[in-house]
Design goal:
heterodimer, A: mainly beta, Immunoglobulin-like, 7 helices, 23 strands, B: mainly alpha, Cytochrome Bc1 Complex, Chain D, domain 2, about 35% helix, about 5% strand, globular, disordered C terminus
Chain lengths: ~400, ~375
């Protein structure tokens, strides 16, 4: 008697598997086929100019695998041959320059881990709970290690004039994406990156070249980067006027809301990852991040914010990257209201959704970093809710 | 007929039509198995009454009928909701037809050039092979022609190693900067010479923009609404248009010039863009005369109504950030938590129910 998986000899224990070259570029196990990006078709008019979501509930640690980093395009995935790619720097510089990819490879390069969050992440939740799963409510975030050239070196190579105050990166895709960025930020920590997690950027992440703007909204991280203009005033492009401006209850709209605020979410258990046992030892885990730097502390509650405990941060704690937290407990099989609350190194505490609504109304779309609630019922089924 | 060139032409259809594996109906019906299909016959797609009637009258999509339709849709089917003006060039129609045929098992004749993407057709592997052979040298040839400017560039940089710290890259030429530096600022910096009237813009708009944005900027499906919405910014569902929300006219010119029409960016002349910008102003009642002409000279005299309602980022003054108090850990709220909002009520999570009904407020 016993588990036949143990008492009987299994095929994989008897017959050899594929040889070394079966998958020259390796793939995840066939049993992980559910672990994919997903989109929400009603969000946008068309899949060419749309978004999909990272399956946060299927991942652990702080690094997002390249093939699972959420995608957001405004005119589809541009196909750019690196041999034919050029990066131009023009405007208020001593010498307007053109670089090939080969030129860029000769600059000193750096490796840095950063989260990238779309400003609209959780944007569908402003009016109330809508989507059942952290993939959909929080999946417009990913975190990888970039290899690239500090933008400062490229700007110094062209020689920035003293009157310069802004830069405007531009993409080579059919939307020719553009954003205005203060020169101060460009010189501080922006990277012109060509690798993610050690390999070339994925096409959907801007291959062969993208801008990295640490801690700031993802829309500014121009993909297929082909030009950087230097100027003395912002350009007020479509993506910083019509979009990515935060409409308040009084009809005013905030512009240039660049920093992504302190935020966290419990990734397991969560609606797509219910509890499948009746009671006992349970691992609660999640992610926290802040555009202001590192995460200093994450608190979690099981009773909907009546009482909180401090969770255990594990793994590297890097500025402007994802942080992983855990809280292990014995579930007694009763209903739970799970929440997490992050505090960053600047001292900012993640607000509640109601606090954000009180300050901004329901029409902001962007920058919703409110505390998320998951309701666990005694069957272990989990729903996205808001509570008193 | 060249299916590969046809695929490029199809970029102009892609905003509304899908074709190939897994293609679904969008603004327009999917185009798989188009050849031999009776017009207006895809079940579940909401055709115009005119298209349904045309199908009932015997219109079947074949080489001739499709060529006629693509040349001027509204001539063949008066009342079709396909707002596309039509393809003017015969070779574009022929190439597009060849491309679409690769997705139709029934394509009777004349598919002279086999195209690669017909993955489920039985002869596909053979086609792929016959394409693969000529493909390789072609790619090499392309690489060789590409190498020419790159080498020239390298020579220039040898001559001028003086810039910067690392002496990498080469000076950009004036023509190169002019080709890419097309951005416009609110103060008018970057505006090209040129002009266009509301009336000229209206014609262009009907041809190139109305298929997504609607004849009057009211939008088709979920494409952006361009006009109206004044006074709605404090409503439950604000309508953010050029007239009601956008702060600067320069953004309209800049964006049309760099990214429109969707599927055929950078195809409009500077005068076209002035005319279209003028027409968008007209749709928003910001100018009222059809003979109004927008030009580089009068551009910055026009202000959009909502300009003053944009403010700087003042998030840090919000109470939850400004208070800077140590968060509560014990007995923070009275009573047991009660659910006030359920995601399950709206049920707009993908794969949950009927996606058609799911319109829970978009983010675009």
């Amino acid at each position: 008697a016993g588990d036949p998986l143990i008492t009987e000899i299994q095929d994989w224990n008897r017959y050899p598997g594929d040889g070394v070259d079966a998958f020259p570029y390796g793939k995840p196990s066939q049993f992980e086929s559910e672990v994919v990006r997903r989109n929400v078709p009603w969000l946008t008019s068309d899949s060419i100019s749309s978004i999909n979501f990272t399956p946060l509930h299927e991942l652990d640690g702080i690094i997002t695998p390249n093939g699972l980093c959420f995608e957001r395009h405004h005119a589809g995935i541009a196909v750019v041959d690196p041999q034919q790619h050029r990066l131009m720097i023009n405007g208020l510089v001593d010498t307007p320059l053109v670089f090939t990819m080969a030129d860029l490879m000769r600059f000193p390069r750096e490796n840095r881990v950063y989260f990238l969050e779309c400003a609209a992440n959780s944007g569908m939740e402003w009016r109330g709970s809508q989507l059942n799963g952290c993939q959909f409510t929080h999946g417009m975030v990913h975190c990888v290690m970039y290899t690239g050239v500090p933008l400062k070196y490229l700007l110094e190579e062209a020689g920035v004039k003293t009157s310069a105050k802004w830069i405007m990166p531009e993409g080579a895709d059919a939307s020719a994406m553009t954003r205005s960025i203060p020169l101060e930020k460009a010189l501080e920590d922006c990277l012109v990156a060509f690798k993610m997690n050690g390999e070339a950027l994925r096409p959907e992440q801007g291959y062969p070249l993208r801008l990295v703007v640490p801690g700031w909204e993802g829309n500014m991280w121009i993909k297929w980067l082909r030009r950087i203009e230097v100027g003395d005033e912002p350009w007020h492009q479509r993506e910083e006027t019509s979009k990515y401006t935060d409409l308040l209850a009084n009809g005013k709209a905030r512009r240039f809301t660049w920093v992504m605020d302190v935020k966290s979410v419990i990734t397991n258990p969560s609606p797509q990852a219910p509890i499948k046992y009746k009671r006992g030892r349970t691992v609660l885990t999640g992610l926290a991040w802040s555009g202001n730097g590192t995460i200093k502390r994450v608190d979690v509650t099981l009773d909907g914010g009546r009482n909180w405990v401090t969770a255990r941060l594990d793994g590297p704690s890097l500025s402007k990257s994802l942080h992983r937290f855990y809280y292990e407990f014995d579930w007694d099989g009763s209903e739970l209201f799970l929440q997490s609350r992050a505090i960053d190194e600047a001292g900012f505490v993640q607000p509640t959704k109601d606090e954000l609504r009180a300050a901004r109304g329901d029409n902001s779309i962007y920058h919703n970093n409110g505390i998320q609630t998951w309701h666990v019922n005694p069957d272990g089924v989990i729903e996205n809710v808001e509570i008193s | 007929q060249d299916a590969a060139l046809g695929e490029k032409v199809f970029a102009r259809c892609k905003a509304c039509h899908a074709v190939g594996e897994g293609a679904e109906n969008r603004v327009g019906p999917h185009l798989n198995e188009l050849f031999g299909r009776t017009a207006g016959s895809i079940e579940g797609f909401k055709y115009s009454p005119a298209m349904t009637k045309a199908g009932e009258g015997g219109l079947v999509w074949e080489d001739e009928t499709l060529a006629e339709f693509l040349a001027k849709p509204k001539d063949l089917v008066k009342g079709t909701k396909m707002a596309f003006a039509g393809l003017k060039k015969e070779d574009e129609i022929a190439n597009l037809t060849a491309y679409l045929k690769t997705f139709s098992a029934n394509a009777a004749s004349g598919a002279a050039t086999p195209a690669a993407p017909a993955s489920d057709a039985p002869e596909a592997p053979a086609e792929k092979k016959s394409e693969a052979a000529p493909d390789a040298p072609e790619t090499k040839a392309a690489a060789a022609t590409e190498a020419a400017p790159a080498e020239a560039a390298a020579e220039v940089s040898e001559e001028v190693p003086s810039h910067g710290v690392f002496h990498l890259g080469r000076p950009a030429t004036e023509d190169e900067v002019a080709a890419w530096d097309i951005d416009i600022r609110p103060d008018g910096a970057g505006l090209p010479e040129g002009r266009g009237t509301v009336a000229q813009g209206e014609t262009l708009f009907a041809d190139q923009c109305a298929s997504c944005h609607g004849d009057f900027g009211e939008a088709v499906g979920r494409w952006p609404v361009l006009a109206g919405g004044q006074g709605t910014l404090m409503n439950e569902r604000p309508e953010k248009t050029v007239g009601s929300f956008w702060p600067y006219l320069s953004t309209v010119y800049d964006y049309i010039r760099r990214a429109m029409p969707f599927g055929n960016a950078r195809s409009l002349s500077d005068d076209d863009v002035y005319a279209l910008t003028a027409y968008v102003l007209y749709l928003n009642d910001i100018v009222t005369e059809e003979d109004f002409e927008l030009s580089k000279e009068n551009f910055t005299s026009i202000r959009l109504p909502n300009e003053d309602n944009f403010i700087d980022d003042d998030r840090l003054s919000e109470p939850h950030y400004a208070a800077n108090i140590e968060p509560c850990m014990k007995d923070c709220k009275p009573g047991k938590a009660e659910i006030t909002k359920h995601a399950a009520v709206l049920d707009v999570t993908p794969d949950s129910v009927d996606d058609e009904e799911n319109t829970g407020g978009g983010i675009d």
